[in-house]
Amino acid sequence: MKDPLRQYFVASLPAALAGAWILGDRLPPESAETAAIWQLALLDRLQIPLGTLPNSLANLALGASFLIPLLLTVVLVSRIWAGIFARVRNRPLDPAWFLSAWLYSLLIPATLPLHYAAIGYSFGAIFGCYVFGGTGRYIVNPALLGVAFLSISYPDLLAHDRYLPGSDALSSWAFVATEGVETAVSTGVSWVALFFGSETGVLGTTSALASLLGAVYLIARKIASIGIVAGALVAILITGELISEIPWQWHLALGNFAFILAFIATDPTTRPTTTGGCWAYGALFGVLIIVLRMADPNNPEASVPALMLASLCVPLIDYIADAAAPRSKAPEAIGRD
Q: What is the domain count for the chain?
């Protein structure tokens, strides 16, 4: 039997590596002199000779110097909370304690101070997962809830250039929405570049292509629902053509949409249990993204609130789908009774 948790990690690994490489490649040279970036200082103190490595390896190592400390911090916090709740309830460790920490780490800026990363994940893990009984029982993905908590409680922290001067201050969505597609193209921000990967900051969302390839892998392994992914893409196309001032294909490459669609929206715990329900859930997610993005172009990203709203509608979607058609043979939910 396949291990869905391991497959999600494997599928999202290319997105993480692409993000680390691009961050290392595009790290502004002046950032080390104008800000106290402890990752760069640590590399210097350890006398790691990045300059002697091939450019590709040096870029990857530099990007990893931001990802690894962040990931280790969040993983440690996740393990602590998993251990506490397992001991209190006299149950085994939650099976998704590492995966949720991994996905959360890829959804927050790589330069976010570690204590804020720990606070955000703690909120998501406790109030998004463990109060409901753990993986298989929660309503909203805990990684998604942790990011939403940070964006509401500490919105200024998500500006990428606060700790890394010269990097992108806003997500690609905010830049294109406020400046317009023509302005973006005139400054060298092409759709192709965004789709393949051009942002710095939030490592997992750098390359839409890497995320969508991860979704294809999960679908091919019969772990993710094709209905969710296809429903969201069709909804983006139709709704984007109807109400969006930005060409619909740009929405696929902008911001963190592709990563959230591939690895968060397809979460076996929160998705519907019927085939029709999965299509409706994906379509609702896609429609909400366009509506929220058009309602507030200054908001750096709408994928997080859009998926949270769609997740809260899953019980209703399942109820309607159950009444209209037999239960599907969708991939089995992790831990769901």
A: 1
Contact of 161 with 192, CB cutoff 8 Å: no
Pairwise CA distance, residues 55 & 52, whole Å: 9
Per-residue pLDDT of 149-199, as tens digits, reads 998 888 777 665 555 555 544 567 777 877 788 887 887 778 888 888 876
> What's the domain range around 153?
4-324
Nearest-angstrom CA–CA distance, 137 and 333? 10
Burial of 313 (0-12, 13-18, 19+ CB in 10 A): middle
Q: Is 308 within a domain?
A: yes
Describe the crossing of helices 226-243 and 208-220 by its angle, rounded to 10 degrees.
Answer: 140
Q: Would you give the end-to-end CA distance of the chain in angstroms?
A: 18
Q: Are 215 and 264 in contact (CB under 8 A)?
A: no
Distance CA(220)–CA(225), nearest Å, equals 10
